[in-house]
UniProtKB/TrEMBL annotation, chains A, B:
<keyword id="KW-0413">Isomerase</keyword>
<dbReference type="GO" id="GO:0004493">
    <property type="term" value="F:methylmalonyl-CoA epimerase activity"/>
</dbReference>
<dbReference type="InterPro" id="IPR017515">
    <property type="entry name" value="MeMalonyl-CoA_epimerase"/>
</dbReference>
<dbReference type="GO" id="GO:0046491">
    <property type="term" value="P:L-methylmalonyl-CoA metabolic process"/>
</dbReference>
<protein>
    <submittedName>
        <fullName>Methylmalonyl-CoA epimerase</fullName>
        <ecNumber>5.1.99.1</ecNumber>
    </submittedName>
</protein>
<dbReference type="InterPro" id="IPR037523">
    <property type="entry name" value="VOC_core"/>
</dbReference>
<dbReference type="InterPro" id="IPR029068">
    <property type="entry name" value="Glyas_Bleomycin-R_OHBP_Dase"/>
</dbReference>
<comment type="similarity">
    <text>Belongs to the methylmalonyl-CoA epimerase family.</text>
</comment>
<dbReference type="Pfam" id="PF13669">
    <property type="entry name" value="Glyoxalase_4"/>
</dbReference>
<dbReference type="GO" id="GO:0046872">
    <property type="term" value="F:metal ion binding"/>
</dbReference>
<feature type="domain" description="VOC">
    <location>
        <begin position="5"/>
        <end position="144"/>
    </location>
</feature>
<keyword id="KW-0479">Metal-binding</keyword>
<dbReference type="InterPro" id="IPR051785">
    <property type="entry name" value="MMCE/EMCE_epimerase"/>
</dbReference>
Amino acid sequence: MKLGRMNHIGVATPDIEASIAFYKEVMGAQVVTEPFVLESQKVRVCFVETPQQGGALGTTGGTQIELLQPTEADSAVGKWLEKNPLGGQHHICWEVEDITEAKAWFEAQGKRVLGEPRVGAHGTMIFFVHPKDMGGQLTEIMERPREAH
Amino acid sequence: MKLGRMNHIGVATPDIEASIAFYKEVMGAQVVTEPFVLESQKVRVCFVETPQQGGALGTTGGTQIELLQPTEADSAVGKWLEKNPLGGQHHICWEVEDITEAKAWFEAQGKRVLGEPRVGAHGTMIFFVHPKDMGGQLTEIMERPREAH
């Protein structure tokens, strides 16, 4: 396997509207997508766009911030926020070309894949790998969107 | 201020050589820079290169992983590792055009800037902002390198 693009950093927040205001007003984000509920993860989610290398300030194409607010306390992100009430970096997401091959790859390396591949926030298939097998980072593996998101 | 490029994600590790092997052998990184000691932060540091959007697998230009191994237990990263012995995501780093203007901006927003700007791992001036003022994320602000790093 060759390393793919870092699609996004998942950032948990107790208040997604306050976080959007922070990224716009303090950090100067120019483009933030509309929040929507991702039922399978029990989160409200939106993306903060960032410029890529060589891109003008305020443009898109760089690694995104994925803001995540739990819709239920009894959910993965809800439990994470209990321990980290301010929010913060929750996971890192890497793109792969083929989700089935990627799952087989990580399993062959002895990495614990958490559940079966399912549809993620970008509409492509994703799975998570256990942080204890990944240098302490909860890691999302995501099939690369075929068009720019 | 307009949001700049996400330069890197700082990832603390108790063993930088093991982490380099992980990124190369498990994640498939093609380019990892040679580790060096950054005395001001009391860390050994290197960068895992990642492709940018549209870039082929194994190319560079995307947000980097900055691996950080403390050279002393009594250091910021050393203390962080005491609480997180496996390592993991330690900070996020954003590029700005002008470090002096950026410091004034964050201070005017009531954000706690941690110390004076100093030379960072990319050779440009950097400072950190307190995680409690930044949605739970320790945030590095870095003057953009004038040439590709």
